[in-house]
From TrEMBL:
Keywords: Membrane, Transmembrane, Transmembrane helix. This is Voltage-dependent calcium channel gamma-6 subunit. The lineage of its organism: Eukaryota, Metazoa, Chordata, Craniata, Vertebrata. GO terms for biological process: regulation of calcium ion transmembrane transport via high voltage-gated calcium channel. One of its GO terms (cellular component) is L-type voltage-gated calcium channel complex.
Length: 269
């Protein structure tokens, strides 16, 4: 009886039972193949996400560069009196930013304009640029008999500097995420980029309020004012940084918003 039992057991093993044979080997190979497919899918997903992070980081660098360009130049606003204010054929125009102001005397004035300027037109005779004393002695500046508002100007500059600090912090987080392969660093980077964009736009708004306060300080000399290309760079940079911050936040989600909206479709497939 025992010999018959052993012979049946050996026949089961040889015939492809659970412990051996072709079907057992196929099951093991199938399990290994499934694990390999999952690893390959995870590797492809990680590579795709790394490419998305690099692309968004490149766009963020463009926003940072535009911010630095706008903050470092002094063409935030241009001030120009009417041409009839001067009788000798020359015009005095002014342009300034967060840190300094420039007064320029022009001779070749566009006949189509009612006011002097713009400041970068040909015919320049003399240009005098001086830094504001807001950050040293605390003195206000006088431009065309109008006085600047120190508090608003200092607030705009402070918001701009704080936004730069947040940009640097976000860039460091992105570099650490790419070097260590950790998705965790994307969350603080997204928050910092979004806040930096908001602060840049707030700085531009506060600066515009300071310009309006300057114009309202004295009505002796009528002035035409317009925001120039430095302010445009700052505005575009703020919008770019906010969008990049939101997109980085979407990358930190466990699954895409499309998968959240269609869970039944993905479960069925």
């Amino acid at each position: 009886m025992w010999s018959t039992f052993y012979m049946q057991e050996e026949d089961g093993r040889a015939g492809g039972g659970p412990g051996g044979g072709p079907s057992g080997l196929a099951g093991v190979m199938g399990m290994r193949g499934g694990v390999g497919k999952r690893r390959a899918a995870a590797s492809a997903s990680s590579t795709r996400q790394e490419g998305q992070v690099k692309m968004l980081f490149f766009v963020a660098i463009i926003g940072v560069a535009l911010t630095i360009l706008g903050l470092g130049t002094d063409y935030w606003v241009e001030l120009a009196p009417p041409k009839t204010f001067y009788n000798n054929g020359t015009c005095l125009v002014a342009h300034y930013g967060l840190w300094k102001r420039c007064l320029t005397t022009l001779t070749d004035i566009d006949s189509q304009r009612e006011s002097c300027g713009p400041a970068n037109m040909p015919g320049e005779v003399d240009s005098n640029c001086t830094f504001f004393k807001f950050f040293t002695s605390g003195d206000n500046a006088v431009i065309f008999q109008k006085t600047t508002q120190k508090s608003l100007s200092v607030a705009a500059a402070s918001l701009a500097l704080l936004s730069l600090f947040l940009m640097v912090t976000a860039a460091v987080c992105i570099i650490m995420s790419l070097s260590k392969g950790e998705k965790f660093f994307l969350k603080p980077a997204s928050v910092c980029f979004t806040l930096s964009g908001i602060l840049v736009l707030l700085s531009l708004m506060v600066f515009h309020q300071s310009v309006l306060a300057l114009l309202a300080s004295d009505h002796t000399v009528p002035l035409h004012h317009e925001l120039s290309w430095s302010a445009s760079c700052v505005g575009i940079a703020g919008a770019i940084l906010i969008v990049v911050g939101v997109l980085f936040m979407l990358l930190t989600l466990s699954c895409s918003p499309w998968e959240r909206c269609l869970p039944h479709h993905h479960s069925a497939t």
